[in-house]
Amino acid sequence: MQAKPQLHGLPSYKPGKPIEEVKKEFGLTKVIKLASNENPFGSSPKVAEAIRQMAENTAVYPDGYAALLREKVANKIGVNENQLVFGNGSDEIIQFLCRAFLSPNTNTVTAHPTFSQYKLNATIEGAEVREISGPDGMHDLDAMLAAIDEQTRIVWVCNPNNPSGTYVNKEAFERFLAQVPSHVLVVSDEAYIEYVTAEDYPETLPLLEKYNNLMILRTFSKAYGLAALRVGYGVANPALISILDPVRPPFNNTTFAHVAAAAALEDDAFIAECVEKNTAGLTQYVTFCEKHQLRYYPTQANFILIDFGRSGDEVFDFLLKKGFIIRSGEALGFPTCARITVGSKEQNEEILTILEEMLASKPVEQR
Ligand SMILES: *Cc1c(COP(=O)(O)O)cnc(C)c1O
Question: Is this entry keyworded Transferase (predicted)?
Answer without folding.
Answer: yes
